[in-house]
Design brief:
- The radius of gyration is 15 Å and the shape is globular.
- The longest helix has 9 residues.
- The protein is built from 3 helices and 8 strands.
- It has one domain.
- With 125 residues, the protein is mainly β.
- Strand 7 and strand 8 form a beta hairpin.
């Protein structure tokens, strides 16, 4: 099992998600200028984020991750060099993250030993 992380579809250059109690706010930057903020119900956010994904083949998306086994933990690799840490990516599961946040998952383990790809990440304790 692996996870692909996709870049934002141009001309969108940045997204910021602010989670609220009943609604979330998604601020959108187009060509580095704030284009506005959407207020959406939580259940609408995944579908909205899908609108901003530049779908690419697995060997062309910026980042991928997979479970490397209990000893190795999560494995994160980049399909291209020099990705800016602040660059936004969206996982195939609808997570909005920076490149740095995805790279920080490299080597992550779950306390219960299950693959991080299944349920999320946490450090080994």
């Amino acid at each position: 099992m692996s996870t692909s992380y996709y870049r934002l579809k141009p001309p969108v250059t940045h997204l910021r998600l602010e989670e609220g109690d009943g609604h979330d706010r998604l601020t959108i930057w187009v060509n580095h200028a704030n284009a506005g903020t959407l207020t959406l119900r939580k259940e609408e956010m995944r579908e909205m984020l899908d609108c901003f994904i530049l779908h690419e083949a697995d060997n062309e998306c910026p980042l991928r991750s997979y479970w490397g086994g209990a000893d190795r933990g999560a494995v994160v690799y980049a399909n291209e060099n020099d990705l800016p840490d602040e660059m936004m990516v969206i996982s195939e599961y609808g997570e909005l993250l920076t490149v740095a946040q995805v790279k920080a998952r490299d080597g992550a383990h779950r306390k219960d030993g299950w693959p991080t790809e299944l349920f999320g990440y946490e450090g080994r304790v």
